[in-house]
Specification:
Length: 138
């Protein structure tokens, strides 16, 4: 799908039919108004809904976010953080895609939530960060 977008001259980080596409590391992240789909280099996928789930408001509030905003940028933040650290993909998302759990998932979760909160407090749009990190398909 990404190759098809690039073949049509669509730059990554651009909105196409209500969907924004980012290629960061070996992951391709597709965002719509309602969900984020992360496709890892091996083709496995992780889907995440943006709608608030019960109990998320308290966590989101700790980081200065709404639950919807936290959910919208959460998997994208996993991918951004992995790229900044020089990883091919988020170990946590890769494990989820395999139906598994990475032993250090909680460390990554803390870092991702902290990144989201820090970005919100500093007025940084994580979608703009993702657009800057995006690269064309190989």
């Amino acid at each position: 799908m990404v190759g098809g977008l690039a073949a049509r001259g669509v730059s990554l980080g651009a909105v196409v039919s209500g969907m924004t596409v980012y290629r960061i590391g070996t992951a391709t992240v597709y965002q719509t108004d309602g969900h984020t789909r992360t496709v890892l280099g091996d083709g496995r996928e992780v889907w995440a809904a943006h709608a608030a789930q019960p109990g998320q408001e308290a966590t989101a509030d700790q980081y200065g976010l709404t639950a919807e905003a936290m959910n919208r940028h959460h998997d994208l933040a996993h991918t951004i953080l992995a790229a900044v650290l020089g990883l091919r993909a988020s170990p946590t998302l890769a494990a989820v895609a395999r139906g598994d759990r990475w032993s250090e998932w909680w460390r990554e979760e803390q870092a991702v939530l902290a990144l989201q909160g820090y970005a919100a407090a500093a007025g940084v749009d994580l979608e703009q960060v993702a657009a800057r990190l995006s690269r064309p398909p190989e």
